[in-house]
């Protein structure tokens, strides 16, 4: 029997959390028995053996890694400590790992990069360009050199970690994707999101500081015209490579 993948989630809102899980299932092509979800915001990370899983996925989050500790909740501080301890195991073992949005902040901080609010991007669709290293990366096989992706983040990786290889960039955010070792990946954009998904997130997080709440309906009208077809393919490729 093939080993399942593990999805570590941190969204407290059920609508956003369940939509995220459904999106990862859809884009990876995995069934629920093949993608175990652990909601870290609800309870401490359970003990598990990395060898029991084909790979680890980390979804997005309302948490902001670069906020001062005194502004973080006790739950956020616990989650960050648990993810850092997990990465202490993942990175040396080069365990297959894919972190989306919150994952790049978590991995970037862990690996000595600088994550701050310099390159935050509003909820929008942006063109992402692969670097030469990205064009040669097996997880990005078959991807066009430039593709549209959905973003919406308050912080981003301003200085690439010394251990990382830059795989993709965009005009407003120089670090859109990187790899550490051979198997540890992170993106700033959301490969698990389609237009319907980002509309759901925008409604759930209307008052979370990503945009002025009164602009919600205009944002929904604007984002609904986006055509995003490519980013989800890399999740399917990642799973196919490591399952």
Layout: helices, strands, pairs:
Layout: E1 5-9, H1 14-28, E2 35-39, E3 55-58, H2 74-93, E4 97-100, H3 102-110, E5 114-116, E6 121-130, H4 132-135, E7 146-153, E8 156-159, E9 164-170, E10 173-180, E11 184-187, H5 195-204, H6 216-223, H7 232-242
Parallel strand pairs: 1-2, 1-3, 3-4, 4-11
Antiparallel strand pairs: 5-8, 6-7, 6-9, 9-10, 10-11
Mind explaining what this structure looks like?
The protein has helices at 14-28, 74-93, 102-110, 132-135, 195-204, 216-223, 232-242, and strands at 5-9, 35-39, 55-58, 97-100, 114-116, 121-130, 146-153, 156-159, 164-170, 173-180, 184-187. It has 243 residues and is of the alpha/beta class. The chain has one domain (5-242): Rossmann fold (3-Layer(aba) Sandwich). It contains seven helices and eleven strands. The mean pLDDT is 96. Helix 1 packs antiparallel against helix 5 and helix 5 runs antiparallel to helix 6. Strand 10 and strand 11 form a beta hairpin. Strands 2-1-3-4-11-10-9-6-7 form a nine-stranded mixed β-sheet, sandwiched between helices. Strands 5-8 form a two-stranded antiparallel sheet.
């Amino acid at each position: 029997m093939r080993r399942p993948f593990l999805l570590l989630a941190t969204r407290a809102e059920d609508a956003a959390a369940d939509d995220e899980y459904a999106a990862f299932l859809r884009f990876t092509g995995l069934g629920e028995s093949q993608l175990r979800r652990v909601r870290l915001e609800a309870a401490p990370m359970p003990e598990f053996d990395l060898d029991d899983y084909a790979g680890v996925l980390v979804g997005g989050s309302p948490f902001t890694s670069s906020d001062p500790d005194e502004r973080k909740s006790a739950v956020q501080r616990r989650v960050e400590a648990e993810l850092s301890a997990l990465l202490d195991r993942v990175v040396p073992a080069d365990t297959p790992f894919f972190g989306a949005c919150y994952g790049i902040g978590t991995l970037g901080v862990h690996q000595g990069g600088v994550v701050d609010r310099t390159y935050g991007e509003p909820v929008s669709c942006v063109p992402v360009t692969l670097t030469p290293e990205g064009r040669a990366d097996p997880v990005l096989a078959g991807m066009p050199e430039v593709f549209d992706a959905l973003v919406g983040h308050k912080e981003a990786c301003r200085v690439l970690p010394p251990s990382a290889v830059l795989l993709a960039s965009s005009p407003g955010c120089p670090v859109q994707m990187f790899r550490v070792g051979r198997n540890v990946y992170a993106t700033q954009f959301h490969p698990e999101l389609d237009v319907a998904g980002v509309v759901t997130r925008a409604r759930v997080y209307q008052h979370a500081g990503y945009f002025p709440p009164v602009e919600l309906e205009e944002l929904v009208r604007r984002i609904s015209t986006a055509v995003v077809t490519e980013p989800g393919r890399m999740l399917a490729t990642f799973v196919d490579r490591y399952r």
